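Task: encode each sequence below as structure tokens.

Item 1
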Amino acid sequence: MNERALLPVPVGGFPEVVPDLTQGAVRLRAMTETDLPFVVEQSNDPATVRWTTVPQPYGLEQARAFLDLHRRGWSELGGTKHWAIELLPHDGEPGLPFAGIIDLRPGAKGGAWETGFVLHPGARGRGAMSGALRMAAGWAFDHGAPSLYWWAARGNFASWRVAHACGFTHHGSLPGRVPHRALGSSDAWVASLLPEHPMTPRQPWSEPPVIEGDGLRLRPIRDDDSAMAEPHDHPAHFVPARAVPTPQTFDDWLLRRREGMSLGRGINWCIADAATDEALGEVLLFVHDAHLVVGGTAELGYAIRPTARGRGLARQAARLAADHALLPVAEGGRGLRRLLAETAADNEASNRVLQEAGFTVWGREEAADAPDGGVGASIHWERLT
């Protein structure tokens, strides 16, 4: 294939050269002067400022410069292709004349294309961006894109949720890959979409439901739950050091937990007091290099902060989480077939927790690799439906 062989040669002036695309309530169109106040609002929104490098301060002068960039991109064969996003009235919901911006950046010499997008705050929660991305991706593939890549600063879950909904495959994080306003550069998530892939999620996004019982509430972990992070006092061979947060590691630990859930690799709950909502620890279901599936297997883990131990919290939380995991989907559970757990043989407290939560021993290793790099005896547990 010749370089950009299928890209249409620009014919005519602006805005006629910009393809006008509509699917459902979402329309992609050329940007106009009347959009500029909305572009200013969008560019000064705190989420936009946090996750992008739009100039600050941002006013009409910067918006007009962006409109000029938009025009030039469509006049050049390999230029960046921007669209304004509009929401049309649909199913009783009013339309929005401007809902955001999406772009395509054609690759040189037949290489991969890239995409980026920014949503106006007034359009959130209406599915505008996922609809826009599907249309833009379809246009890219129709015009020779061999693949479409998405990048975002690590932690930008709103952007990843859009790419995830549209079938992009997450490839992990790259260090220092994207510019960052405060730090200079930031680690980046990267994901891709191929022409033959359906534009639907490739794996589930796990959302922890709220579960109450025995005086506890299992709920999503929040940014303000750092009280669960206390200095470690457990033997190093009991649990991997990074699995239990400290005051210094809580933010990164929580980011890793949320990353895993966004990839369907587990469910993480805060163990909270049902009366006060105080964060007491964590209970989780997880799989290695896969995702939770109905009829499948997962592992159970739990940790109680040191100052909250001795109250039977781990046993209660483990039973609540295990009951939910093995409950059929039709009854509100995860529909798993089997739960596993592994403990150090001398971790008597954890062994009691599993026994009281309905687990039985299915195996023992005398020289297992321990989390601290040593070797020791370990016990393998299971609970079946």
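Item 2
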Amino acid sequence: MSRLPSLYISHGSPMTALHPGLVGERLAALAAQLPRPRAIVMASAHWLTHQPAVGGHAQPPTLHDFGGF
């Protein structure tokens, strides 16, 4: 099994989704250079559990708690 390079992308501001600007251009260029993965491992501090947890879901639900922008 071949491995892809690891990649860390900070989520930054949710406004990037509405106004991608240079960040969007750079991410699109980066995505064009990488092969499409079969699976993604994601670590998030935005998940509430009493103990460390591992889960899997094809389309995980999201919590939209952004405000003050």
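Check on item 2: The chain has a mean pLDDT of 81. The first helix runs from residue 21 to 33.
End of task.
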